[in-house]
Structures are given as C-alpha cells and as structure tokens.
C-alpha cells in the first residue's frame, strides 16, 4: 500500500512561485516598483504619497495596479498587501542570487 502526502499551496507559496518566473514582477512600471518597495518598508498609502509627493488617490491607483499585475485578486482569506510584499522580497532574493 502506498501513501501519498499532498501539501496544499498557500497564497505565500504562490507569491514566491510567481517571483521565480519573474514575469508578473517584470510587468511593473518603475513607479509601481517604487510603491511596492515602500509598501515593503511598512509604509501606509498616505506615507507613500508623502514620500513620492503624490496624492493619496494616485498611490491607491498604483497599489491597485501592483495587485492586478501580480495576479493578486481580492480575497477575504488573503491579504493582498502582504502577498505583494512577499513577492517583492522573493524577487529581491532571487535577483541577489543571479
């Protein structure tokens, strides 16, 4: 008798898998990458706007586009902001190795 063990794929695993392919991350504009980097520093949308000298609505638009380009759809079970930051750190890690 053979027993198979299956591990479910978590949202964090999917975020890191995306960074290995680099395709979604490479679709981000330079400004979207700046916004994502500031999100990774733990900054709020308001703080990001102050840092980049743009309005809150502009930051919200950039954040929304980051989520869309990274394939992070709205889900009550997952925090898209955290998953986007994990993608950022995963990409930074793989870029440092290359």
SSE layout:
Elements: H1 11-21, H2 23-26, H3 30-40, H4 45-52, H5 56-69, H6 80-97
Helix pairs in contact: 1-6, 3-5, 3-6, 4-5
Q: Which value, in Å, is the CA radius of gyration?
A: 15 Å
Shape: globular
CATH topology: Rossmann fold
Residues in helices, as a percent range = 55-70%
Largest sheet: none
Low-confidence parts = none
Instruction: Please report the total strand number as a whole number.
Output: 0
Describe the structure.
The protein has 98 residues and is mostly helical. It has one domain: Rossmann fold (3-Layer(aba) Sandwich). 67% of the residues lie in helices and 0% in strands. It has helices at 11-21, 23-26, 30-40, 45-52, 56-69, 80-97.
Short description:
The chain has 98 residues and is mostly helical. 67% of the residues lie in helices and 0% in strands. The model has no long low-confidence stretch (mean pLDDT 81).
């Amino acid at each position: 008798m053979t027993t198979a063990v299956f591990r479910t794929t978590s949202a964090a695993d999917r975020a890191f898998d995306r960074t290995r392919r680099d395709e979604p991350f490479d679709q981000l504009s330079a400004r979207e990458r700046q916004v994502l980097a500031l999100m990774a520093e733990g900054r709020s949308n308001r703080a990001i706007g102050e840092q980049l000298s743009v309005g809150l609505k502009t930051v919200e638009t950039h954040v929304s586009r980051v989520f869309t380009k990274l394939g992070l759809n709205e889900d009550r079970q997952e925090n898209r902001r955290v998953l986007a930051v994990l993608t950022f750190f995963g990409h930074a890690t793989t870029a440092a190795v290359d």
